[in-house]
Amino acid sequence: MKTQKERMLAEELYMADDQELAKDCKRSRQLTRLFNQTTEEQQEYRQELLKQLFQQTGEKIYIEPPFRCDYGSNTVIGENFYANFDCVILDVAKVTIGKNVMFGPRVGIYTPGHPIDPGVRVRGLEFGTSVTLGDNVWVGANTTINPGVAIGSNVVIGSGSVVTRDIPDDVVAAGNPCRVLRKITKEDTAYWEKLEQEYHKDFES
């Protein structure tokens, strides 16, 4: 018979009122409390705490306190990750974040779900579905990423979005519910590379 933790990680119905899960949750609360109490002079200690908290990270990870998560141990984060203030990751199911991903303030990733039927819900059963973000994703402030969503690579999510369905690669998407507004094109690349060149010229002159 599966444990409640095994059921949770398999994205099946489970009971959160479980000793093993409570122990894992307590560990997460302790690490995030220590992290949120750090000062600007304790950057190395912050890195150490984050690497203890998450299942896996890249070498370069920066999160602005305060930060909250359920477990941390179910979250994998790629190289060069940045999250601004008030980030929340509820990872009862697996959360996978690619490399070069940026979060604006108050971005939330939510994997938990609860039964629609009120009777089953009140009796305490719940479940989670995984969330995946590809590489080179920029998520604007106050965005909510709902359970089961996959966001592709090279994507910009506009601020205030509520992402309820998958988003493909190479697009700008925004809204509630979040929808694709347009493709990211070669013209975008040319425009921003031109501005980048002008930026460098200012420092060379």
Automatic annotation (TrEMBL):
It comes from the Bacteria. The keyword Isomerase does not apply. Gene3D superfamilies: Hexapeptide repeat proteins (2.160.10.10). Residues 5-59 form the Maltose/galactoside acetyltransferase domain. Keywords: Acyltransferase, Repeat, Transferase. InterPro entries: Hexapep, Hexapep_transf_CS, LacA-like, Mac_dom, Trimer_LpxA-like_sf. It holds the Pfam family Hexapep. The keyword Glycoprotein does not apply. PROSITE patterns: HEXAPEP_TRANSFERASES. Its EC number is 2.3.1.-. SUPFAM superfamilies: Trimeric LpxA-like enzymes. Belongs to the transferase hexapeptide repeat family. PANTHER family: ACETYLTRANSFERASE YJL218W-RELATED, GALACTOSIDE O-ACETYLTRANSFERASE. This is Acetyltransferase. It comes from Candidatus Enterococcus ferrettii. The lineage of its organism: Bacteria, Bacillati, Bacillota, Bacilli, Lactobacillales.
